[in-house]
Design a protein that fits this description.
The chain has 411 residues and is α+β, with helices and mostly antiparallel strands. It is 47% helix and 9% strand. Strand 8 and strand 9 (313-315) form a beta hairpin.
C-alpha cells in the first residue's frame, strides 16, 4: 500500500477512549499525518478515558503547544508512569523520567558517553558493520530489510557499546517488544499486563548481567556505570538498573523504526532516492528531513505537576499529557512547506528527538547510524523497490513495519 494513500482514521474526541483507538489504528501507524492535521485544528483535546491506574489525557498537537510543554518541566513533569505512558517499569527510567534538579546530575554523568566527539569515533566501525550486513544479501538481489538490516544494525552497535554479549540479542528483543508493543496486545488492561511481565524480565536480565560484569574483565558502558559516581556518591544498583531499562528500549527500537520508515519512503519515492545516489552530500539533510516527516517516535508523555492552561484547554494537576511531536513537526504554522519533503531546507528544527532538558540522550548516535546506513546502502544498492504484492504491517505506538521485503535492481 503506497504512503500517498490519504484515508484518515476516524477521530471523535467526544467519545472516551478516542485517543487509544486512534493510536492503535493501523492506518494511523502507517501514515499519521492526515490525523495530525485534524488534531491541530483547535486547542488541545481531552480524552476522558481513565487508563489502568491513570487519569484523563490531554492530547497536544500544535507545535507551539508541544514546545511549551517540552520546555516547562516544572509544570509538565516527566515522572509519568501509568496508562499510555506506562512501560512496565517499577521505578522511573533514568534520566527520561527524572525531573530537575536530579535530572541534571544524571545527564552530566551520561552525556559525555554520547557526545558528538565520542560518537564520531564509532563511524568506521558502523561503516564496516553496515557493509557486512549488506554483504549477506546483496548477491541475492533481495532482503527483508527489517530483520536483515534495520534490526541488527543498531542492536549490534548498542550491545557493543554497552558491553553485552551479542548472543543475548534475541532475548533482549523479546523483552523490548513486550515493553514497547505489549506483545501485540490491543486491549489496554492486557497491554499493561504484558508490559509489566516484560518489565520484570528486563530487571531480572540486568540483575544477572551486572553481577556477571562485576566479576569478569571487559569494557563497555555498563561496566563503567558500576564504578560511576554522581556528586561523589557511587550509583546504586537500582539507579544503574533504571538507566539500563531506558537504554534497552531506546537502543533496540527507535533507530530500527527510523530506518524502516525512511526506506519505505525512499522506495515509494524514487526521485528522492536517486537524489541521494547522485549526491551523497545530501545525506545529512535527508536524514533530518525524514526524521521530521516520518517522526517514528510520534508521541511522548508528560504529567501535569500543577494546574495549567494550554490555549484554553484546562489541564488539572495529575492529568496525563500526550505530546504528538509528529504533529508538531508537520505544523504549517511553524514549518514552511510542512506538507512537503524537502532535502534542501536551510533550517530544520524538528522535534523528532524531543526537546527541552529531556532531549534524546542518544540523538547523536542515532544520527550517525542513520547517516552511515543511508550513505553506504545507496552507494551499493542504488535501485530497490518493495516486493510486488507485499502487504506492509505497520505497528502502533512506535512506527515501524514488521517485514519490509525489498527487491534490488530495475523492474
Amino acid at each position: 500500500m503506497s504512503q500517498t494513500d490519504t484515508r484518515q482514521p476516524p477521530i471523535d474526541a467526544s467519545q472516551p477512549g478516542w485517543m487509544v483507538e486512534l493510536m492503535l489504528d493501523p492506518e494511523f501507524a502507517r501514515d499519521p499525518r492526515p490525523a495530525f492535521e485534524r488534531l491541530r485544528d483547535g486547542p488541545p483535546k481531552r480524552d476522558e478515558l481513565e487508563l489502568p491506574g491513570g487519569t484523563p489525557t490531554i492530547v497536544v498537537s500544535r507545535a507551539t503547544d508541544v514546545d511549551q510543554v517540552l520546555r516547562n518541566p516544572k509544570v509538565f513533569s516527566s515522572q509519568f508512569g501509568s496508562g499510555m505512558g506506562g512501560l512496565g517499569n517499577d521505578r522511573p527510567m533514568i534520566p527520561l523520567q527524572i525531573d530537575p534538579p536530579d535530572h541534571k546530575k544524571y545527564r552530566v554523568l551520561l552525556d559525555p558517553y554520547f557526545a558528538p566527539r565520542q560518537m564520531a569515533k564509532l563511524e568506521q566501525d558502523v561503516t564496516v558493520l553496515v557493509n557486512q550486513l549488506i554483504d549477506r544479501f546483496i548477491e541475492r538481489g533481495a532482503c527483508d530489510f527489517t530483520s536483515e538490516f534495520a534490526i541488527p544494525l543498531p542492536s549490534t552497535v548498542f550491545l557493543r557499546l554497552l558491553g553485552l554479549p551479542l548472543e543475548d540479542l534475541d532475548f533482549l528483543l523479546h523483552i523490548k517488544e513486550g515493553i514497547v508493543r505489549a506483545d501485540g496486545e490491543t486491549e489496554v488492561h492486557k497491554m499493561a499486563k504484558a508490559r509489566a511481565t516484560a518489565g520484570q524480565e528486563c530487571y531480572e536480565y540486568f540483575e544477572s548481567a551486572l553481577d556477571r560484569l562485576g566479576r569478569e574483565p571487559g569494557d563497555g558502558l555498563l561496566r563503567d556505570l558500576l564504578e560511576a559516581e554522581v556528586d561523589g556518591i557511587r550509583l546504586t544498583r537500582d539507579e544503574i538498573m533504571d538507566v539500563c531499562y531506558l537504554f534497552i528500549l531506546a537502543g533496540l527500537d527507535t533507530v530500527t523504526d527510523s530506518l524502516c520508515c525512511f526506506w519505505v519512503h525512499l522506495a515509494d519515492n524514487p526521485a528522492r532516492r536517486q537524489r541521494i545516489v547522485a549526491d551523497p552530500g545530501v545525506v545529512p539533510a535527508a536524514v533530518e528531513e525524514l526524521l521530521r516527516w516520518e517522526s517514528p517516535v510520534s508521541a511522548v508523555a508528560r504529567i501535569a505537576a500543577e494546574d495549567a492552561d494550554l490555549q484554553g484547554c484546562p489541564v488539572h494537576k495529575g492529568e496525563s499529557v500526550l505530546l504528538f511531536v509528529g504533529a508538531a513537526n508537520t505544523d504549517p504554522a511553524t514549518v514552511e512547506g510542512a506538507d512537503q519533503v524537502d532535502f534542501d531546507r536551510s533550517v530544520n528544527r524538528h522535534s523528532a528527538f524531543g526537546g527541552g532538558i529531556h532531549r534524546c540522550l542518544g540523538s547523536h548516535l542515532a544520527r550517525l547510524e542513520l547517516r552511515v546506513a543511508m550513505r553506504e546502502w545507496h552507494r551499493r544498492i542504488p535501485d530497490y523497490r518493495i516486493a510486488e504484492g507485499a502487504e506492509l504491517i505497520w505497528t502502533p505506538m512506535l512506527r515501524t513495519v514488521l517485514q519490509l521485503p525489498l527487491v534490488f535492481g530495475g523492474p
